[in-house]
Amino acid sequence: MWYHDHTLGMTRANVYAGPAGFYLLRGGPDDAVVGTLPGPAPALGDRAGRDYFEIPIVIQDRSFTEDGDLFYPDNRAFFDGLDPSQLQIPFMPDPACGGPSDVAPIWNPEFFGNSIVVNGATWPSLDVQRRRYRFHFLNGCDTRFLILRMDDGPPFWQIGNEGGFLPAPIQVPRLLLGPAERADVILDFTNVPTGSQIILRNLAPDEPFGGGAPGVDFEPADPDTTGQVMRFRVVPATAPDPSTPPSELVLPTLAPLGAATNTRQVSLNEQESATVRVSTEDGNVVLDCTNGEPFAPAEADLGTLNPDGTGKPLGWDEPLTENPAVGAIEVWEIHNFTEDAHPIHIHEITFEVVNRQPSGDGDPRPPESWEAGRKDTVIAYPGEVTRVKALFDRPGLFVWHCHILEHEDNEMMRPYRIGP
Ligand SMILES: [Cu+2]
Questions:
Q1: Are the C-beta atoms of residues 342 and 211 closer than 8 Å to each other?
Q2: DSSP assignments along 113-149, one per residue
Q3: β-strand 277-281 against 284-287: which pairing, if any?
């Protein structure tokens, strides 16, 4: 698991400033692996110079000023590719616009840094011995999806995701991770020659992700910058490797959830402004309440469905609509009416990914192999219904939200309550 600040409306700034970390949860039947996993992991009180063979790796994108300070846009003009003088959205526009502005002047719809930072270091290098390693990969980016690939390196053996272990180890050529998704992975450097240098690459786009394949459906990240994550440099092993080959590991399996007792339909929506209309004059975006176009996007919203099947966006402080009973097993059908994929995170529970289905006609398709077991974040693709199933076993007031932090903060988050 991982943790980060969740302050309402400024999560993006606080995560960007630094505080985020891992919890490595140990013990109990859910951790009863038959076989030996690579270790140890870093622990409080370790002496310096200790060798680690289980390493949490958080990947984030950031931008820096020439002084080395973090750069983060403080004006909406950044997203629109303008100088702030060319785009100033007043809080109280012309009364002809029909009311106060519903556009946040400093909020940017998405944020992509131009550098990759791993565990706080930009494009680091890690010496790895000729043996097996267990890595906990976490996408800690604000907006950026990641598609990780090793350059001429060993394959990824994925053994777990957000909710724990997969039913069995799987070999995957690439790791797709939306923001907040995790992959528990074994990489075997045993047969990689000493002195080899392997780059961990990122093939996901430098813009919002909509699904599909790198180089076919979208241009991959800049191979000179955000297309690189870190480097592994292979050195001799200092001791025999006691770990079990990943294909021979027997992983603990969770009993599947029973039949759903309720199904509810929720929606992902992107909204243009209802009160701000603008037009373009000499490259400047100016308020034009009479002849202008609605300013967009103004915000992204979760919501429910209208009777006609269209999305019904709901703001954060509108009355609660998701209220599972204690002990209920519910399927949530997530209808994505936007043009982008969103990593949807439901607090408090972990869920099974049931399937995905094109909106309208079309057959459902099963979850990806790495989505087996339990997850707490799922990628909901545009034009599809994504179904997840969970047992809501503890009462309380929680939230669910898009884990693109810019979306979560404005205001793609809703409360939900388990129990009365
Ligand atoms: Cu989103």
A1: no
A2: -SEEEETTEES-EEEEESSEEEEEEEE--SS--EEEE
A3: antiparallel
> Cα dist. 305→298, 308, 333 in Å?
20, 8, 10
Ligand 1 centroid, distance to 46 Cα (angstroms): 39
Cα–ligand 1 centroid distance for 198 (angstroms): 33
Are 305 and 311 contacting, i.e. CB atoms less than 8 angstroms apart? yes
* 131-143 per-position pLDDT tens digit: 999 999 999 999 9
End-to-end CA distance of the chain: 28
Looking at residue 92, what is its pLDDT? 67
**Overall pTM > 0.85:** yes
Angle at 82 between CA 77 and CA 88, to 5 degrees: 45
C-alpha of residue 181 to centroid of ligand 1, in Å: 14
**How far is the centre of ligand 1, averaged over its atoms, from the C-alpha of 170 (Å)?**
28
For residues 186 and 128, the answer to whether their CB atoms sit within 8 Å is no
* Sheet strands side by side (includes 299-305): 311-313, 299-305, 262-271, 328-336, 384-392, 351-358
CA of 401 to the centre of ligand 1 (A): 8
Report the run of H or E that residue 176 belongs to, with start and end: strand 175-177
| Cα-to-centroid distance, 179 and ligand 1 (Å) | 10
Other C-beta atoms closer than 10 Å to the C-beta of 184 total 22
Report d(CA 319, CA 330) in Å as an integer: 20
By C-alpha distance, which of 306, 312, 12, 20 is closest to 138? 20
| Rounded distance between C-alpha atoms, residue 365 and residue 357, angstroms | 6
pLDDT of residue 289: 84
pLDDT band with cut points at 50, 70 and 90 for residue 106: confident
For residue 410, report the distance from its CA to the centre of ligand 1, in Å: 10
Q: Sheet of 228-235: strands edge to edge? A: 125-129, 228-235, 197-202, 146-150, 175-177
Structure tokens belonging to residue 274: 């209802």
Task: Measure 248 CA to ligand 1 centroid, in angstroms.
Answer: 38
Taking the centre of ligand 1 as the mean of its atom positions, its distance from the CA of residue 408, in whole angstroms, is 7
Given a contact cutoff of 8 angstroms between Cβ atoms, the answer to whether 152 and 198 are in contact is yes
